[in-house]
Amino acid sequence: MNHDLRTVMRHFATGVCVVSTFADGADGRRHDAITVNSLTSVSLDPAIITVCFRHDSRFLADLRAAGVWGVSILDSESEAHARAFAKGPESRQTALAGAAHSIGDTTGVLLLQAAGWMEVAYRDELVIGDHVMVIGEVVALGAADSTAPLIFLQGGFHTLDELSRL
């Protein structure tokens, strides 16, 4: 076999979102956010979603401890957010300081100004290979009028308009 899974999956288009959570410590609450494209809607009743993280992710450890997380579904005008939150923890902290956001009323997580958002409560997790699939119940959500979604395909960010010209 001359292709690996990553090479093949580059041909599968996904949406892009930023997942946020927090850690409470002696110095107060530290928020964090990370770009993911592994968001999956699993059930409508109850409203269940999943996201996946590497086993050794500090973000995953914070999410487990907090028991809640937020999802901001990015639109085509949010590529800068997608790139900023795809970096390491220190860069993400800088990006959070400059990103327009609100605090979720139900969970206290940060929600970016985005096409759609969800506040989610931890329900379970499943270890799968080199990742952990976190399963959560949506406890609050909303959507805004927005432009086209931000798409991740072939290792880069795209818009639907751009993809239609390929």
TrEMBL record:
GO terms for molecular function: oxidoreductase activity. It holds the Pfam family Flavin_Reduct. Gene3D superfamilies: Electron Transport, Fmn-binding Protein, Chain A. Keywords: Oxidoreductase. Its EC number is 1.-.-.-. Residues 9-159 form the Flavin reductase like domain. This is Flavin reductase family protein.
